């Protein structure tokens, strides 16, 4: 990790052509190879990669445009969450500002926090059909990661049982039951998603749910459950 004033090959003007503003430029920044994070917009979660960080803000690589929202936050793989303001977004990047200066060393330390050293999970509502023991039953996804998912199923599943799930928006998913607390089950996939694949799958679902919530004049309740 290099302690730098700017990313290699960049001037003080961002590559996208949008200026990050004096607050984001003034603090020393840490140029990162990769730090996976979620950008949370009014409860909807979008995957991104932190490209540099300072005590006052972040530059994040996006996989989809962020929607308009009243509140934004960034959540790290450790579970630590920071409120932020969206300063700019252009092309595949966004500039985020912290309302107050933060401890950037803690932000970058993935060995600390509620969930140290685990893959990030996207809270999501997605339906599917689970095939198990010659039966096909409906399931609902509660979260999704590169390696697994938490689903709800009325059918009792066995520990280490191999199941197949059809969702209509992903390839067929083959997974084993890792934990169970009926009707919730934690699954681990036989084949993992790349981060970009996971982002491309989840972003349209998040936008669709946000539109539905807006139409009903409600906000998404916090999701629970882990894979």
Structure description:
By secondary structure, the chain is mostly beta strands. It has 2 domains: 2-108, Thrombin, subunit H (Beta Barrel), CATH 2.40.10; 121-227, predicted glycosyltransferase like domains (Thrombin, subunit H, Beta Barrel). It is 14% helix and 42% strand. It has a 6-stranded antiparallel β-barrel. A 6-stranded antiparallel β-barrel has the order 9-10-11-14-13-12. The longest helix is centred in the C-terminal third of the chain and has 21 residues, at 195-215. The radius of gyration is 19 Å and the shape is elongated. Mean pLDDT is 82; it is low at 1-19 and 219-227.
Provide the descriptors you would attach to this structure in a database record.
227 residues, mainly beta, Thrombin, subunit H, six-stranded antiparallel barrel, six-stranded antiparallel β-barrel, 42% strand
CATH superfamily of the largest domain: predicted glycosyltransferase like domains
Overall mean pLDDT stands at 82
CATH topology of the largest domain: Thrombin, subunit H
Share of residues in helices: 10-25%
Largest sheet: 6 strands, antiparallel, barrel
How is the topology of this model organized?
Blueprint: E1 2-4, H1 22-26, E2 29-31, E3 36-41, E4 44-53, E5 57-62, E6 72-76, E7 81-90, E8 93-97, H2 104-108, E9 122-132, E10 135-144, E11 148-153, E12 162-166, E13 173-181, E14 184-189, H3 195-215
Antiparallel strand pairs: 1-2, 2-4, 3-4, 3-6, 4-5, 5-8, 6-7, 7-8, 9-10, 9-12, 10-11, 11-14, 12-13, 13-14
Could you provide a short overview of the structure?
This protein is mainly β. It has helices at 22-26, 104-108, 195-215; strands spanning 2-4, 29-31, 36-41, 44-53, 57-62, 72-76, 81-90, 93-97, 122-132, 135-144, 148-153, 162-166, 173-181, 184-189. The strands form two sheets. It has a six-stranded antiparallel barrel. It has a six-stranded antiparallel barrel with strand order 9-10-11-14-13-12.
């Amino acid at each position: 990790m290099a302690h730098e004033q700017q990313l290699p090959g960049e001037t003080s003007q961002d590559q996208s052509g949008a200026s990050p503003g004096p607050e984001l430029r003034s603090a020393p920044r840490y140029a990162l190879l990769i730090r996976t994070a979620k950008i949370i917009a009014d409860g909807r979660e979008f995957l991104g990669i932190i490209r540099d960080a300072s005590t006052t803000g972040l530059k994040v690589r996006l996989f989809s445009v962020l929607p308009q929202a009243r509140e934004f936050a960034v959540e790290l793989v450790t579970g630590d969450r920071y409120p932020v303001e969206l300063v700019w977004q252009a092309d595949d990047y966004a500039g985020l500002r912290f309302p107050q200066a933060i401890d950037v060393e803690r932000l970058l330390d993935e060995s600390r926090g509620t969930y140290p050293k685990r893959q990030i999970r996207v809270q999501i509502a997605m339906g599917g059909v689970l095939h198990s023991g010659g039966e096909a039953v409906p399931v609902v996804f509660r979260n999704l990661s590169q390696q697994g998912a938490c689903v709800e199923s009325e059918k009792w599943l066995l520990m280490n049982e191999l199941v197949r799930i059809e969702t209509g928006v992903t390839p067929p998913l083959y997974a084993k039951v890792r934990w169970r607390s009926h009707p919730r089950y934690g699954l681990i996939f036989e084949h993992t998603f790349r981060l970009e694949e996971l982002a491309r799958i989840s972003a349209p679902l998040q936008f669709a749910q946000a539109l539905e919530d807006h139409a009903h004049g409600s906000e998404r309740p916090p999701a629970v459950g882990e894979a």
